[in-house]
Amino acid sequence: MTYKERLNECLSAIKHGDETKYDDFVQLTYGPLINVARSYLYDKSNARSVVLDLYYKIYLYADKYDTSKEAEAYLWQIVKNKAYDYNKQQIKRRTVNIDDIQIFDNIDQYERVNARIDIERALNRVGATNKAIFLWTYEDGLTQEKIARMLGISKSAVCQRLNKTKQKLAKYLR
């Protein structure tokens, strides 16, 4: 029996109330789903949470699963969407670490605090996603391809957002 057939069999059995197949399902899917989650997450440590959330939802809503869908694609899409949701949560909590921005190396502590406040205010005006793209690029050194994949948008969209953000920041920081 192929992987896909075993997966479809497990989900179908779970849907019809066979809870003994749930352990088989977890054993069968945990590694591949963790890998999918890691490939889309900014913070890889959230991969386990994403997959565990999926398992919980499957347990709660197994009776609603449409057995006509291919299970593998269905699960991968759910994990991908959950990873995007986790990335969005990360974006909302993100703050500027001014110590990582080298242009502020030669200023005193008072000016550093004021600069941090000014930058944080300016970044908060460009929107959460644009702020994250800017910080991921310039503070974390991520590539535009990686950022695009994490957000589920094209590389050109990341480039456009980054350029518009830089223009807005220049305007706000004058």
Question: Would you give an account of this structure?
Answer:
The protein starts with a helix and ends with a helix. It has helices spanning 3-15, 20-40, 47-61, 71-93, 109-125, 128-138, 144-151, 155-172. 72% of the residues lie in helices and 0% in strands. The model has no long low-confidence stretch (mean pLDDT 83). The chain is mainly alpha-helical.
Helix-strand blueprint:
Layout: H1 3-15, H2 20-40, H3 47-61, H4 71-93, H5 109-125, H6 128-138, H7 144-151, H8 155-172
Helix pairs in contact: 1-2, 2-3, 2-4, 3-4, 6-8, 7-8
Compose a concise summary of this entry.
This protein has 174 residues and is mostly helical.
What number is the mean pLDDT? 83
Give me the Rg, rounded.
21 Å
Distance between the termini: 65 Å
How many strands appear in the DSSP assignment? 0
Unreliable spans: none
Shape: elongated
Elements, N to C (H/E): HHHHHHHH
Helix/strand-derived category reads mainly alpha
Percent helix, as a range, is over 70%
The major β-sheet equals: none
What share of the residues does DSSP label as strand, in percent? under 5%
* Number of H- or I-type helical stretches: 8
Features of this protein?
mainly alpha, 174 residues
